[in-house]
Amino acid sequence: MKLKKGDQVVVLSGKDAGKKGKLLKVFPKTQKVLVEGINIKKKHQRPTQKFGGGIIEKQAPMPAAKVQLICPRCSKAARVSRNDGRRFCKKCKEGIDKE
Ligand SMILES: [Zn+2]
């Protein structure tokens, strides 16, 4: 998994294509990510005694392959290379993670 929590990513495909957001969570086992404000599913909730019912918005994880990292150095959607455990942007060759 080349993505980490806190990364800025852009969505490549689907209804949220082109949108940007922060990675809230990474699920390495399923290769999925949770992106802030992206892939929100609306769920209808039946009224209960405590809750009046209505529509609940819930964020759903999406495949990591559908997002691409935005390099914090050059601000472009970039591929990532790894070297000695550190991540580098393939566009500007700068390190992505802060020292
Ligand atoms: Zn870069």
TrEMBL record:
The keyword RNA-binding belongs to this UniProt entry's keyword annotation: yes
Query: What are the recorded GO MF terms, alphabetically?
Result: rRNA binding; structural constituent of ribosome
List the GO terms this entry assigns under cellular component, sorted alphabetically: ribonucleoprotein complex; ribosome
Superkingdom in the source lineage: Bacteria
Q: Which SUPFAM superfamilies match?
A: Translation proteins SH3-like domain
Name the keywords, alphabetized: Ribonucleoprotein, Ribosomal protein, RNA-binding, rRNA-binding
Pfam families listed in its UniProt record: KOW, ribosomal_L24
> Function of this protein?
One of the proteins that surrounds the polypeptide exit tunnel on the outside of the subunit.
**Which HAMAP family is this protein grouped with?**
Ribosomal_uL24_B
Q: How does it assemble?
A: Part of the 50S ribosomal subunit.
- Please identify the protein, giving its name as recorded: Large ribosomal subunit protein uL24
Give the species this sequence originates from. Answer: Candidatus Saganbacteria bacterium
| Source organism phylogeny | Bacteria, Bacillati, Saganbacteria
Q: Which gene name does the record give?
A: rplX
